[in-house]
DNA sequence: CTCGAATGAGTAACCGGTTACACATAAAAT
DNA sequence: ATTTTATGTGTAACCGGTTACTCATTCGAG
């Protein structure tokens, strides 16, 4: 490995001078600078980030914690984060938490041990001690916390829109999947939907789910139609759940959207290619990741942050799992 | 930040002793050990990996380079890698290369700068100088290189199976998507298919593609049916391409699988839910990631590696984009 | 009882950078 | 001509660990 000493020796200057060239700090004579740069080229030297990080007590590493990259929603978040971080020269240490508190703790610890300068997390445990103890910025992504910066979609509005649309399109006995109780955005969606349902007086049932796992969603879908066979509209907690519901409905011989309308949440890739293609409430996942990274960079660099909490807009994506509205006027 | 010095002071011993306790090296009196451990607990001390890494010239970090995590195939690879790495206490620095040589180079450089002990890469440029220069192990994942360890699926056999199946199920004018020319597994699939096609004397056409990007796949799908409208079977280079072909076929009013059969490659999530659900050649993506990580760990730890190249089996997954075989006997 | 081996623990060098400080020289100000 | 100030560069401490080396004490074997 070629070190700063090798470069210094090669040019015949001290390491301090090389360091100055590297960091463009202090005074360096133009001729010296050129010679050093030439040597760096020739020796193919790149400074060791570890040594740098040790002295400065900070690295160019950011911890990114997502529940499960295998779930099609999260890669988009990750990609948004990465693209923004990459622009500013930060790198990601990445981990899947599997919604496990222990795994989260472990990852947070190693982030700290590696002098990470920030953590972006779609945690399931925003109140966790491990987060409170940190003295590096934390941005919650697709999550909400009262005391931490966060980037998330407007779940309540999403829920409201879902309910409005499904009612407008004719469903009258609606089932609402509640989603994990401890995840705020999921609850917001649920509440938004319930609000509208109550206001309009449409009959609805609630199905609780504990996680976003597909297997659980499949069970709940079965339960749903077993307990409430008359259901003619389902507002799912996310697209994966919606897929499970869709599958179960078709398995039972129901027609979608004629017998049952289904609205998902997220707009994950490929759901537009299902049959019927799923109508959903779209979250701008990539943009959310990007914004979270942007917010993080501001926090790291100590720049003023106008808003700690960034709420992103959602929109209804009309596809085939909801009925068409004949009238010209659509909301 | 609490350091080893704080712990040492707290107990009244030297840092060397604390280090010995930490690493279970050298002689430490039982009583001393207990006191140190107690102090570590009380002060909530965790050793700084950066300092450790600097002295040892190696970290617990592994670089993982994938083309695009947003492509549904790659998260499974990533997950397999992560799960295995996590078991042995390694962490991942993750990057998307976007099939860009420059990005790959940049990432490789930062991996090295951070004392990463290994790189797992689904590179598009296996012969690249940047890889050759490395003095840490590199494992290619879903890629093949003559001079590097690699984990990949048996593309040739996959191609053969795809061709056999599509012929057996009645297609007689077959289009084969070739996939990126510089990616060996893609070429292997292609060649496997062509082999069978030639051996059996079935008519076929070749459509070249340069990347795995969905947009390109869509164009090629259009070209395919424009140039060869008689096509009654398509062997796609991967599932995303198959989806594009499926879409285009349906758009043209063709019936799948009655008019055109389609076979993909990979078996990415959700394609079993399309309509018709896609038949495909399944690669064990998760297992491939897992194995690659395993291989990497062996290389890092200097354990004997029986085989540098691990070829994983593929299997035909029969779904709705291929016709059923009436006979009892199926291969 | 003597001596080598085993045990226990501290000192200080080292990893590869950054930077405070010192020092020398040149340029500008008085 | 003298004092400031700006420029250019080197020395060495420091970041937080690990470990080679040293030294002291205890233990067991002969």
Describe this structure as you would to a colleague.
The structure is a homodimer of 331-residue chains. In chain A, the strands form 2 sheets. Chain A has a 6-stranded parallel β-sheet, sandwiched between helices. In chain A, strands 7-6-8-9-10-12 form a 6-stranded mixed β-sheet, with helices on both faces. Chain A contains 12 helices and 12 strands. The mean pLDDT of chain A is 94. In chain A, strand 8, helix 11 and strand 9 form a beta-alpha-beta unit. Chain A is α/β, with parallel strands linked by helices and 331 residues long. The first copy, chain A, has 3 domains: 44 residues, lambda repressor-like DNA-binding domains (434 Repressor (Amino-terminal Domain), Orthogonal Bundle); 126 residues, Rossmann fold (3-Layer(aba) Sandwich), CATH 3.40.50; 129 residues, Response regulator (Rossmann fold), CATH 3.40.50.2300. Chain A starts with a helix and ends in a 14-residue tail after the last strand. In chain A, helix 5 packs parallel to helix 12 and helix 8 runs parallel beside helix 9. At the A-B interface, helix 4, helix 5, strand 2 and helix 6 of A face helix 4, helix 5, strand 2 and helix 6 of B. Strand 2 of chain A pairs antiparallel with strand 2 of chain B. Chain A binds a DNA duplex (30 and 30 nucleotides) through helix 2 and helix 4.
């Amino acid at each position: 490995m070629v070190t700063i000493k090798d470069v210094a020796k090669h040019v015949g200057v001290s390491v301090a001078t090389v360091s100055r060239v590297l960091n463009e700090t202090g005074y360096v004579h133009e001729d010296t600078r050129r010679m050093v740069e030439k040597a760096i080229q020739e020796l193919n030297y790149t400074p060791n980030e570890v040594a740098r990080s040790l002295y400065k007590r900070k690295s160019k590493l950011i911890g990114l914690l997502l529940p499960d990259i295998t779930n099609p929603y999260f890669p988009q978040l990750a990609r948004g984060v990465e693209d923004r971080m990459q622009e500013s020269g930060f790198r990601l240490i990445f981990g899947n938490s599997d919604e496990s508190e222990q795994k989260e703790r472990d990852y947070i610890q190693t982030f700290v041990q590696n002098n990470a300068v920030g953590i972006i997390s779609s945690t399931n445990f925003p109140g966790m001690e491990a987060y409170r103890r940190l003295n590096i910025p934390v941005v919650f992504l697709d999550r909400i916390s009262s005391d931490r910066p966060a980037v998330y979609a407007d779940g309540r509005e999403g829920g409201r829109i879902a309910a409005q649309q499904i009612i407008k399109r004719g469903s009258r006995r609606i089932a609402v999947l509640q989603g994990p109780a401890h995840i705020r955005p999921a609850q917001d969606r649920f509440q938004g939907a319930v609000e509208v349902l109550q206001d309009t007086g449409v009959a609805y049932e609630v199905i609780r789910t504990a996680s976003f796992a597909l297997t659980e969603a499949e069970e709940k879908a079965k339960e749903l139609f077993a307990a409430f066979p008359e259901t003619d509209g389902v507002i799912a907690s996310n697209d994966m759940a919606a897929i499970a519901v869709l599958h179960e409905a078709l398995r039972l011989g129901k027609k979608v959207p004629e017998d049952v309308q289904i609205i998902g949440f997220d707009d994950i890739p490929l759901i537009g290619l299902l049959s019927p293609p799923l109508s959903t409430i779209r979250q701008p996942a990539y943009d959310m990741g990007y914004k979270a990274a942007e917010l993080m960079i501001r926090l790291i660099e100590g720049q003023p942050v106008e808003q700690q909490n960034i709420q992103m807009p959602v929109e209804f994506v009309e596809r085939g799992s909801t009925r068409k509205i004949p009238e010209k006027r659509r909301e």
